[in-house]
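Sanity check. The docking grid for zinc ion depends on where the pocket ends up, so I'm generating a full predicted complex first rather than guessing from homology. Inputs follow.
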Amino acid sequence: MRSLVLSALFVALFTPALDAQQLYIPRNVAQAYAKGTRSPDGRPGPKYWQNKGSYNIAISVAPPSRTVNGTEDITYTNNSPDTLKSLVFRLDLNTHQAETPREQPIETEYLTSGVQIDSYVENGKAKPVKSPVGLTVMRVPLDVPLAPQQSVKLSIKWHYDLSLKSNREGVIDPTSYFIAYFYPRVSVYDDTDGWDTGFFVEGHEFYNDFNDYTFQVTTPKNYIVWATGDLLNADEVLKPEFASRLKSSFTSEDVIHVATLKELKDNAVTQQADTITWKWKADNVSDVAIAVSDHYIWDAGSVVVDKATGRRASVQSAYDEPSKDFQKMVEYGKHALDWCSNNYPGVPYPYQKTTIFRGFADMEYPMMVNDSSQPDPAFARFVAEHEILHTWFPFYMGINERRYGFMDEGWTTAFEYMIGTADMGKQQADNMFKQFRVLGWIGSDASDADLPIILPGDAQTGGGFGNSEYGKAALGYLAIKDLLGDVEFQRMMRQFIGEWHGKHTLPWDMFNSFNRITGKNMNWFFKNWYFDNGYIDMAVTGVSKADGGYNLAIKNIGGKAAPTNVVVTYTDGSSETLHQTPAIWQADQTNATVKISTSKAIKSATLDGGIWMDANPDNNKWEAQ
Ligand SMILES: [Zn+2]
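Predicted complex below; grid placement will be based on this.
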């Protein structure tokens, strides 16, 4: 694992300077072009493949016991042209073991003994397989190598204790649990990197295949279960009145209180057998997550997410009574699904539902959000919108988040700014974006602040890595929007999503697709923003009289091809703002000239990058002597 990371780092840092019109292509991506699994024009190649698992999972949990017991049957199909001699499993919850390396400090309540494998059966034959200590991945040699187009059947029994200190999963309160990353899963084997053996170390996220899931959750009576996918047996688990309320929410414009706190306290909601088994199904998704509680209020509504077909999606929320911001969560969720489906990314919400659960993580899962409660409702909406926006990146698009997090967090952060602008107005959205997403980068002069965004995320830690994934990447995407205009940007985005959804896309697929779809060669910009070091600092170096007005000279000190506004004031007291897209840096990325057409006399000219904040604003102004 270590040698892989180091060689990736070496390649990214020591590639010889290339032509400005050509992007550095890693050798494994070049091989994918040669093999035909990916196309140099950015499309999936004629020989594109990905492996798939079909999971049938049953877990049981009975609070206040923190133990989750599980069994699963997996059919894993090898669609690759390679014969697999072993399987690699992800046991992300081993991150709770004391022996496991983590990027972040933890409290002792976070520690558990991790995942315990109770039995492991491969093609009907039991094998002695033990969960590793201090590792979140496990390699199991196959008795019979798995040939191309063949499947292996696995049956695994396991258990683990939920962590008392909830992070992305764990105990929320003594009778409310968030259950995620909870089953042993086969890791991704892909066409460029083979097995994904990268450790889960908390800061870097996930990379999953698109699998089919049926799963069931058994709890004591009077517990509600929320989860990814379709609830298959509402009538078996809920009393008729409550099953009927849930059903009516699927077509209702109004928010329906499926279960109130009083009804839950009165044990009126679920059927009254000793244990209740909730059954779910979700196909072609990258993961499933589950939440249980005996006192969380349950609201639900729905919204049309595809105007062409009239398809609605269910929006549900589950929360404890003190979390007042959650009383509006179904409305916030409906607004997010509507806005995102029709504006940015402008691709109809691809799933049948979303559930926003009150936890601690501010974290996304397919069709599930685990959000903390916020005193400020506007901020609660902001966080929910961000997590819901992850639906498209990484879930619909299959991003390797651990390695190229700038594709999921970056796009989500760019869309978050756009929906924020629609919600709050430009000024407030700009202020929030600068404060949360830009200042951390632009205000830093740390050694890792200005590293290339393309540097694999799993080769980095620290503040520079976070900025590369979120604000810095988002500013690049928003600069592409500025360069292309909204209509062309949307067309490009939607076509790229259409070509790659449900598949594992890489940055090179994205950049090459953008060039092909727009018919423009934007490599100069992609190289500048995503492959080169740099930051934002422009300086006005002079203003000179020219035919029909003035020429304003700008020097790009930091190097990034950001848009900027030239604010010109005249001696007559009037002023105007001349917007400059990143195109001013296409021919020469160091010096640009902006033509100011006027018959008036200039008093001053100032650069204002807006959200593209300038690291040194002191050199942004020219004044007539
Ligand atoms: Zn995010």
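Relevant for the grid: The radius of gyration is 26 Å.
Also worth noting: Residues 386, 390, 409, 412 surround zinc ion (CB under 6 Å).
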